[in-house]
């Protein structure tokens, strides 16, 4: 009996003896964040289109215009560009660049670097390139359309786009300014430095990338020469911690300062812990229900109308999505120019039944494919239950994210439940995917458009209104145009926005000015402080 | 043997030559079967990867890509080639030491594996060590005092080890030993202040911190590894103690043990001197296999403890259709099993008194 017990006691004792006295307390000048960062594929700003990758880029690069993390509601602000002027015909915008900014290599940031960065992104033509090419840039013309002269940069577009539209797009990750000399020194086979930038950075941002170990950690070091002043946090370490419960433990113990992926259960229990606070921040992602118009039943307007009343909005946000989503029934997220506040639909099974009876529909079966994430499956099951009450059967097939996406892009998901995040901070980002579909044929293969994926034949006037809103020079008039589009959308579209994502960040006391990026951007660290 | 040889000396030399030939042939045979095993493994994994309903191109280009961007990536990844061509070109690359680029990390798979394998190796080695140090004595004593208290304890330990979900035990362990008692470090391989501080030599942080002579980093790394390693150790001890017990019971009922007892040898000498020596050989295989399974099977432990190892690397690769990562990881696990088998084979010969 004694032998194994002694061994165990010895092991425990040795663990005790070896354990440092106190685990708590991260260094005062270091910010430690737990986050799921396993989606980073590339750190090249012309390629990166994932949340965690953009989080890194947003801190290592500057853009011509940017958000002030201490006042994000003010919208885009001067950054590398100090001022800009729109030409009389509205076709060109000329930016004046500041002359005191330097890249991490020590090279000065010149207008030529900024122009080259935009040209490069257009020529590489990776997934996010559309954010720039929608202004009429192509690989062939971009060298003439985007030019640098001294400390000015001129963008010439194919149409007189709304200046707010253009400038909002220039806050996007793909518009990051890279150090041309450093990147070209690492060019391989004419890739404009793409292979090298996948794992390195050449920016002028507040932080220098000091290490990236995929699926493990990202380490940033303060750039002491930063033109907006060296950030207070000298090191930022982002640790990949997949489990919410592990993040919670680390935060409670003081081993991390920030936890970014807490489940509602963990948020609830951590809220009572001393030394920790929860900060709610609305993000841009919209959880919506897509009703595929290729499905015979779903293409009936009465069914579409009934479905809007079969979602238990309050029940869902009050139970399993608690705190992580709010009801939001329009495709523009809170925080966007022209967002509509109206919520026309309520959970009303009787009304849904009446609508279906009036239309002579007596039940039916719909199969759907749902990503095997707890929250989506829960929403699907709640929907299944309320549909059953009006005689509609919902059969749920659970799949991995990649499988669902594959089927969705092939227009093969009858009822899609999932999230859509905006690509840039302008209302056109969601208007152009939810409410724009100029060619609904299979051959059009407009896989990037949600309307196309759901085979929603957007009415001609809505297509036109969406395009017109990108050309409206006056910001207020532009906002009103988007509100009109949203009202019409709410009245008839078969793609039904349901909820907006809220990020519930767990913060150690003392961490101040944390900003995850709100609905419009990615995280920024340079303004964060840790007082006592 | 060699009738044409007139002298004994020549006979001896020809015997030596024959022996060498046999050895070379046996080594060549081993290498050949090793290569074929790995090739088969690759083929099966490759086919599974291709029939899996996951689109690797989507992982690369993402949700928003246009059809043209999708098609460009499809061609760039070589997916437009016939399957057999893809496979052969992959094997050709592997022979040149090139495992391709991972689509989920954007880095060469060989580089990824060099980073994740030491993490898993370190964890599995310590886990197996704990399993052996506790499991073997437990099994031996349980067999020697069959039906006694220790035997009952061992039975319960093994039963719990088989039936308790590893993620539950892991989370409980974290909650108690890290969250409540603060005895061990939290998830991850190192505390934050030590992150990236010890120069990377072997990739095993315990070893590297000793090489660097950084006692603080060693303590920190040990405090992080001890809990997941104990958990893995627990599962392997459940298996090892059961196997040890049944091997021992078999030996203890053998005639030579009765003879030894009749000769008046002490119980201790009978058990450890005679019976245990005879089970050492099969036990080596059990331990080697147990180690091998920890190398590839500790996925859940790695996820719970945020341990950046091979198990979670392969799983993540599988879930995102990252076949280069999966194939590369599979080759490494395959090589490990082959090496472990070879190793236990050699130990067999070394330990088996009948072989000379």
Tell me what you see in this structure.
The complex is a heterodimer of chains A (532) and B (356). Helices cover 32% and strands 21% of the residues of chain A. Chain A is of the alpha+beta class. In chain A, strands 1, 8, 9, 10, 11, 12, 13, 16 and 17 form a 9-stranded mixed β-sheet that branches. Chain A has a 4-stranded antiparallel β-sheet with strand order 4-5-7-6. A two-stranded antiparallel sheet of chain A has the order 2-3. In chain A, helix 11 packs antiparallel against helix 13. The relative contact order of chain A is 0.14. Chain B has 356 residues and is mostly helical. The model of chain B is unreliable at 1-6 (pLDDT under 50). In chain B, 75% of the residues lie in helices and 0% in strands. Chain B contains 14 helices and no strands. The relative contact order of chain B is 0.13. Chains A and B meet through helix 1, strand 8, strand 10, helix 9 and helix 15 of A and helix 2, helix 3, helix 5, helix 6 and helix 7 of B.
Average pLDDT of chain A: 92
Helix fraction of chain B? over 70%
| Silhouette of chain A | globular
Helix/strand/pairing category of chain A? alpha+beta
Low-confidence stretches of chain B: 1-6
Residue stretches of chain A low in confidence (pLDDT < 50, at least 5 long) are 1-24
* Radius of gyration of chain B over all CA atoms, rounded: 25 Å
Record field, number of beta strands of chain A = 19
Percent strand of chain A? 15-25%
- Sketch the topology of chain B as an H/E string, one letter per element: HHHHHHHHHHHHHH
Largest sheet of chain B: none
Please give the alpha-carbon distance between the first and last residues of chain A. 51 Å
Strand count, sense and barrel status of the largest sheet of chain A are: 9 strands, mixed
Based on Cα principal axes, name the global outline of chain B.
globular
Oligomer: heterodimer
State the helical fraction of chain A.
25-40%
**Largest contact between chains:** A-B, 63 and 68 residues
How many DSSP-defined strands of chain B? Answer: 0
**Rounded Rg of chain A:** 25 Å
In DSSP terms, counting alpha (H) and pi (I) runs of 4 or more, how many helices of chain A?
Answer: 19
């Amino acid at each position: 009996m004694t032998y194994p017990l002694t061994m165990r006691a010895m092991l425990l004792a040795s663990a005790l003896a070896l354990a440092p006295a106190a685990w708590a307390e991260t260094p005062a000048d270091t910010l430690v964040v737990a986050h799921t960062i396993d989606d980073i594929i590339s750190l090249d700003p012309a390629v990166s289109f994932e949340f965690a990758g953009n989080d890194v880029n947003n801190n290592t690069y500057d853009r011509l215009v940017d958000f002030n993390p201490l006042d994000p509601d003010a919208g885009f602000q001067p950054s590398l560009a100090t001022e800009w002027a729109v030409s009389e015909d509205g076709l060109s915008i000329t930016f004046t660049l500041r002359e005191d900014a330097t890249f991490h290599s020590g090279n000065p940031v010149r207008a030529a670097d900024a122009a080259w960065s935009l040209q490069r992104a257009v020529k590489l033509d990776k997934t996010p390139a559309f954010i720039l090419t929608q202004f009429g840039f192509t690989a062939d013309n971009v060298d003439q359309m985007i030019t640098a002269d001294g400390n000015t940069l001129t963008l010439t577009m194919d149409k007189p786009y709304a200046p707010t539209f253009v400038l909002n797009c220039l806050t996007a990750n793909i518009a990051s300014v890279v150090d041309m000399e450093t990147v070209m020194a690492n060019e391989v086979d004419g890739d404009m430095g793409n292979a090298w930038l996948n794992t390195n950075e050449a920016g002028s941002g507040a932080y220098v990338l000091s290490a990236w170990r995929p699926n493990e950690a990202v380490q940033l070091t303060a750039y002491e020469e930063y033109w907006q002043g060296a950030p207070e946090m000298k090191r930022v370490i982002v640790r990949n911690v997949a489990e919410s419960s592990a993040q919670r433990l680390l935060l409670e113990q003081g081993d991390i300062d920030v936890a970014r992926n807490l489940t509602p259960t963990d948020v609830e229990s951590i809220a009572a812990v001393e030394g920790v606070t929860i900060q709610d921040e609305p993000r841009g992602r919209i959880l919506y229900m897509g009703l595929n118009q290729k499905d015979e039943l779903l293409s009936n307007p009465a069914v579409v109308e009934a479905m809007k009343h079969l979602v238990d909005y309050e029940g869902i946000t009050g139970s399993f999505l608690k705190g992580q989503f709010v009801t939001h029934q329009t495709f523009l997220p809170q925080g966007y120019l022209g967002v509509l506040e109206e919520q026309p639909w309520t959970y009303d099974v009787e009304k849904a039944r009446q609508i279906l009876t009036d239309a002579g529909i007596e039940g039916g079966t719909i199969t759907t494919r749902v990503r095997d994430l707890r929250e989506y499956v829960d929403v699907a099951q709640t929907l299944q239950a309320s549909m059953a009450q009006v005689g509609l059967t919902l059969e749920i097939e659970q799949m991995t994210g990649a499988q669902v996406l594959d089927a969705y892009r092939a227009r093969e998901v009858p009822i899609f439940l999932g999230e859509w995040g905006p690509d840039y901070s302008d209302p056109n980002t969601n208007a152009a995917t939810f409410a724009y579909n100029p060619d609904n044929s299979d051959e059009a293969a407009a896989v990037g458009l949600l309307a196309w994926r759901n085979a929603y034949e957007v009415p001609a006037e809505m297509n036109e209104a969406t395009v017109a809103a990108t050309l409206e020079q006056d910001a207020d008039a532009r906002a009103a145009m988007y509100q009109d589009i949203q009202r019409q959308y709410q009245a008839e579209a078969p793609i039904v926005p349901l909820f907006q994502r809220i990020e519930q960040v767990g913060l150690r006391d003392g961490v101040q000015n944390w900003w995850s990026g709100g609905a419009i951007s990615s995280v920024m660290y340079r303004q964060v402080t840790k007082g006592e | 043997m060699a009738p044409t040889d007139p002298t004994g000396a020549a006979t001896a030399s020809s015997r030596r030559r024959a022996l060498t030939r046999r050895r070379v042939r046996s080594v060549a045979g081993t290498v050949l079967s090793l290569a074929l095993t790995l090739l088969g493994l690759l083929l099966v994994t490759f086919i599974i990867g291709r029939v899996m309903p996951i689109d690797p191109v989507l992982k690369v280009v993402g949700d928003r890509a246009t059809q043209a961007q999708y098609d460009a990536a499809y061609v760039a990844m070589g997916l437009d080639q016939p399957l057999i061509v893809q496979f052969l070109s992959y094997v050709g690359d592997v022979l040149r030491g090139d495992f391709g680029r991972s689509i989920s990390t954007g880095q060469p798979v060989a580089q990824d594996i060099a980073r994740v394998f030491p993490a898993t190796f370190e964890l599995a080695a310590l886990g197996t060590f704990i399993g052996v140090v506790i499991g073997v004595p437990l099994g031996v004593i349980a067999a020697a005092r069959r039906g006694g208290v220790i035997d009952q304890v061992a039975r319960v330990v093994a039963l719990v080890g088989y039936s308790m979900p590893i993620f539950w035990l892991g989370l409980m362990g974290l909650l108690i030993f890290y969250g409540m008692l603060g005895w061990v470090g939290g998830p991850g391989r190192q505390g934050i202040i030590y992150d990236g501080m010890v120069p990377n030599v072997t990739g095993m942080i315990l070893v590297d911190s000793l090489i660097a002579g950084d006692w603080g980093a060693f303590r920190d790394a040990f405090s992080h590894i001890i809990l997941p390693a104990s958990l893995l150790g627990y599962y392997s001890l459940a298996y090892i103690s059961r196997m040890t017990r049944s091997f021992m019971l078999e030996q203890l009922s053998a005639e030579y043990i009765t003879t030894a007892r009749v000769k008046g040898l002490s119980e201790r000498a009978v058990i450890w001197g005679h019976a245990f020596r005879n089970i050492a050989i099969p036990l080596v295989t059990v331990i080697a296999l147990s180690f091998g399974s920890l190398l590839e099977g500790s996925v859940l432990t790695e996820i719970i403890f945020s341990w950046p190892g091979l198990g979670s690397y392969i799983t993540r690769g599988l879930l995102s259709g990252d076949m280069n990562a999966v194939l590369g990881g599979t080759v490494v696990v395959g090589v490990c099993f082959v090496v472990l088998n070879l190793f236990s084979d050699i130990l067999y010969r070394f330990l088996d008194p009948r072989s000379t």
